[in-house]
Design a protein that fits this description.
The protein is built from 18 helices and 9 strands. The chain has a 5-stranded mixed sheet, sandwiched between helices. A two-stranded antiparallel sheet has the order 6-7. It has a two-stranded antiparallel sheet with strand order 8-9.
């Protein structure tokens, strides 16, 4: 054992190994910043994800020691260059020339205390052959470990669901999922409010629900389900709780594990469909929150009209004998009595102003707030002679750009350069909101708008620019309202994140 030593070395005293197999030959002898730029540029190295994990577990002992060769008067990191890169960027984000990476690490650094004196556990040797033998035990022989298979990984992940620290992550994720369900906003607020949310978590935060829906946390710490009918089943559960239903003459808050399992199994989904399947050439078809189900009878099922306080749910047959809801969603295009999948109605554009009165944004910047109020209350956008679509189209674009500019500066201290386009700004802001933990699905629609190659589409950013710069193009009132409907969710997340 005299060949190897163990010690703690400061970040400032450790060097990356330019001859590491991770680097191409042309990087031999390159400077530290050049090596760091290369490492962060390779997607499979997942430096951002790795850094996030290190910060989250910063109070834990380092699991893997760095392997250091110190036989030539320097501490060369033969094993652990990715990890060392993360620590060096946490100490000094400016070591990377990528401004986005710099800002990401500045954001992470705020939650921990780290300097160049931070010490890392290391295994050292002045014999290069021996230290490489130590490294090969991991990379070539896998340290004789039997890696976890799918079953072991699933067991580990879903068992963490009731861990005290993981519980908060679970609750946040479930709230995000519910906020993105195609149900009325009033129902979302009620189920996540006092009197209901405790019952919901009692059912969903259980080994029974985790197993039934195959709930796990993925590598990005997002809650995902292995069951295609998860969202449909969740809608039924929410509805049953809000309506005060009982299962076997017991309130949901009083069900034991076995009864919860029986209840979940009683929600029968014959065939589900996802939101992604309901698409058309027009992007606004993806927005379904305010849509109403088609009424009328079809193939023996009854369609129910709901008021604003009821939750939208698939068409329901009669309840089962034990009082639980038996929800059935039929597959389109099948034979027999299965009805075709109803196509959701589009959002109404009959309103007189650009912004729906139900949209409540809290904007703590006077000018932007005034623009928001003008677009929601003052500037008419109807079919009358007093309508001002050209003024609305220009001010709408101003509102969008001012919002993203304010977010970047206020939240991240970043000021966009003058030659940055609106599309580039939106990409930057969306990336920041995702890094903040917002579910990526929230941004599906804004990303479609930003990246749309259909320049003539009313939903493209290019059309937005043409409203301002094209002397011949006039915006249509309904087109502008549809454009707002697409962007409304983005604005809610952006200003909600600021607040």
């Amino acid at each position: 054992m005299a060949i190897f030593r163990e010690s703690k070395l400061s970040v400032r005293d450790l060097e990356l190994w330019s001859e590491n197999p991770r680097f191409p030959a042309e990087y031999f002898g390159k400077t530290e910043p050049e090596l760091i730029d290369y490492i962060v540029s390779i997607p499979i190295y997942k430096i951002k994800e790795f850094a996030k994990e290190i910060v989250q577990d910063f109070d834990m002992p380092i699991f893997e020691k760095l392997a250091i060769f110190d036989g030539e008067g320097e501490n060369i990191t033969v094993e652990g260059n990715r990890r060392l890169t993360v620590y060096k960027l946490l100490v000094k984000p400016e070591l990377c020339s990528d401004l986005t990476i710099q800002e990401y690490f500045h954001q992470l650094k705020r939650s921990i205390s780290i300097t160049s004196d931070f010490k890392i556990d290391c295994v050292l040797s002045d014999n290069k052959k021996e230290i490489l033998r130590y490294v090969n035990r991991k990379h070539l022989n896998n340290n004789n470990e039997a890696r976890w298979g799918t079953i072991e990984q699933f067991n580990a992940k879903f068992r963490w669901i009731d861990d005290p620290e993981k519980l908060d992550n679970f609750k946040i994720n479930l709230q995000i999922i519910i906020r993105n369900l195609s149900i009325p906003k009033e129902s979302k607020n009620r189920i996540l409010g006092r009197g209901f949310v405790t019952t919901l978590f009692r059912i969903m935060n259980s080994r029974t629900a985790a197993s039934h829906f195959q709930l796990v946390f993925n590598d990005d710490h997002e809650l995902i389900s292995g069951k295609e009918n998860f969202h449909s089943s969740l809608i039924v559960i929410i509805n049953d709780i809000l309506e005060g239903k009982e299962y076997k003459e017991k309130k949901f808050s009083r069900l034991n594990a076995q009864e919860v399992e029986e209840y979940l199994k009683s929600i029968t989904i014959l065939s589900s469909y996802s939101e992604e399947e309901v698409q058309d050439e027009e992007i606004e078809d993806l927005f379904r929150e305010d849509s109403k189900p088609n009424t009328g009878k079809s193939s023996g099922t009854r369609a129910e009209e709901k008021n604003d306080h009821d939750i939208l749910r698939p068409e329901m047959p009669d309840e089962s004998e034990d009082g639980s809801s038996k929800n059935t969603i039929f597959t389109p295009g099948t034979s027999g009595a299965h009805p075709a999948k109803p196509k959701p109605n589009k959002k109404s554009t009959d309103r007189k102003y650009l912004i729906r009165k139900e949209c409540k944004l809290v904007i703590n910047q006077p000018k932007i707030n005034n623009i928001y109020i003008e677009l929601q209350r003052d500037l008419l956008l109807d079919d009358s002679s007093r309508s001002v679509p050209n003024a609305v189209s220009v001010l709408f674009r101003v509102f969008l750009e001012c919002s993203v500019d304010f977010y970047a500066e206020k939240k991240h201290g970043h000021i966009f350069k003058k030659d940055i386009t609106l599309s580039q700004k939106l990409h930057w802001v969306v990336a920041k909101l995702k890094d903040a933990g917002h579910n990526s699905k929230i941004f599906t629609h804004i990303e479609k708008v930003v990246t749309s190659g259909r320049e003539n589409s009313v939903f493209s950013i290019q059309r937005f620019n043409d409203y301002v710069h094209d002397g011949k193009l006039e915006a249509g009132p309904n087109d502008l309202k549809k454009k707002w409907d697409i962007l409304e969710g983005f604005f809610e997340v952006l200003w909600g994140d600021l607040n």
